[in-house]
Each structure stands twice: as structure tokens, then as C-alpha cells.
Amino acid sequence: xxxxxxxxxxxxxxxxxxxxxxxxxxxxxxxxxxxxxxxxxxxxxxxxxxxxxxxxxxxxxxxxxxxxxxxxxxxxxxxxxxxxxxxxxxxxxxxxxxxxxxxxxxxxxxxxxxxxxxxxxxxxxxxxxxxxxxxxxxxxxxxxxxxxxxxxxxxxxxxxxxxxxxxxxxxxxxxxxxxxxxxxxxxxxxxxxxxxxxxxxxxxxxxxxxxxxxxxxxxxxxxxxxxxxxxxxxxxxxxxxxxxxxxxxxxxxxxxxxxxxxxxxxxxxxxxxxxxxxxxxxxxxxxxxxxxxxxxxxxxxxxx
Length: 304
Hints:
This protein is of the alpha+beta class. Helix content is 49%, strand content 14%. It has eleven helices and nine strands. A four-stranded antiparallel sheet has the order 4-5-1-6, sandwiched between helices. A three-stranded antiparallel sheet has the order 7-8-9. It has a two-stranded antiparallel ribbon with strand order 2-3. A hairpin with a 2-residue loop joins strand 4 (139-144) and strand 5 (147-152). The chain is flat, with a radius of gyration of 23 Å.
């Protein structure tokens, strides 16, 4: 039923969602967001980035406000009641039913779409219709699910938006993580300053799953390189270690086939022309992990 509801709501909201939103939308790829980062920062006069992180987003959504937002486009009361029941379902933790007053319940088929709808009204539409017309220079938003950055031509615009953004989010029960939300100088100007005598290396930022770095191309033009985030790389290798440990007694051919599928999945997401080093590091690490656990097989299953 949730899948059917998602198809119905997608037909409605795909007419409303803005181009800045890339996550969990039909016809959109995980590669679209980093592609958009490169296009905007390399082609537009961007000097300042607001990197934002929402604390516990999926658990902080105010349900009544969410239903009110959906009610603007969906008049069928039976659909609204059904969505209300889904988002109010509790979770079982250690044999106990836990019911919270906020959140959409992660793991449900409909949760990503509901999260997109909430931020569409709270952030996307507000930034496009209300904020941008009041700014001195150009500004752009790029969002993937609850992960987003705001790009500005002028730092003074970025500072103003950061101040009002905190108030805007608080109105809807959301909070920006104080340690993970920051303004930074990033772009062509930042790279030029770093190349001057005594200049400092430009800062980097993470989005979504990639670390973005100011660089020069071989022709000397400003560009952006991406690398797999260290945190994501470590998490992926940890999962690979657990899998190899659990399946070390399977047939070697079956292990090899499964690991190749996992590697292809990693390459499909993180396969960027400037991320060769990260992919090679992942491949080599997986090989070492697999060899380690093959060597720990019981004597009866050791390789010839």
C-alpha cells in the first residue's frame, strides 16, 4: 500500500519539486548532485559555501505540520488518514513498543518521499521564493535528501541566510548541527588566494558521500575534484570485513562472485574520473580483507 501511495504522490509532487532536489526522486541518479555542485561552483561566481547538517532529521519532522503540508496538494481524507497511521507507527526495541511524537519512521517505503515533501516546503520553496530575491548576489541550493549545501556569490549574503536559516528550521522542529554546519570560502577565489605566497590550502567539504576539493586542471583552469569520504570508505570496508568473516567457509568461487558484485556497486556510485585513488584503495583493501579471512578457514576447508 505504501508503494502505491508513493507512486500516486510522486505523480503530484514531481510537478512541484524544484531542480535543486536530487535524492529519492524518480529519474534521478545519485550522481546528479555532485554533478550539479561542479556545474554551479565552476561556472557561476561562487565564493562562499554554507555546508549544513540537520540533527536527526527523520526523527525530528513534526507530523502535524507534515500532514498539513500534504493537505495542500492532497484532498482525499482517506489518503491523509492512511499516511497519518503510517507515520505514527512505533518501533519495537528490545521487546518494547516505543512511540514518539515526531518523525516519519525510517525504513518505511514512504519515508524518503515524506522527508522530501517536508524539506520542499521548509527549505527549497522558501529559499527560492523568499530568500534569493532579497540577496545582493547569486545563490544556489543543492540538496540530496536531508543533506544540502547553499552556494553564494557574496559572503555577506551567506551570513544573513545562515542566521535566518536557524530560525526558519526551529519553526518546523528542526535544528542545524552546531559542529557540522559551517560557512567556508570555497571556489575560484579561494584557490587563487591559496596559490599566493603564504596562502593556506583551501578547505574541503563533504556532499553527498564525496569530499570536494578545489584544484587546477592540466590546462590550468579551476575545477573541482572529488574523493570518497573517509567516513564512507571506512564504513564500507567495515561491512566488507563483516561479510568476509561471515561467509569465509562458502565456496571460494561463490565468495568471489559476491565480492565482485559488491565492488561493482561501489564503483557505480563512487566512479568519478577524479576518484581513481579512492576506488583503487577500496579494491586493494577488500583484497587484503578477503585474503585475511580465507586464511582463517578451519583446517578442513583450507585452500590447496
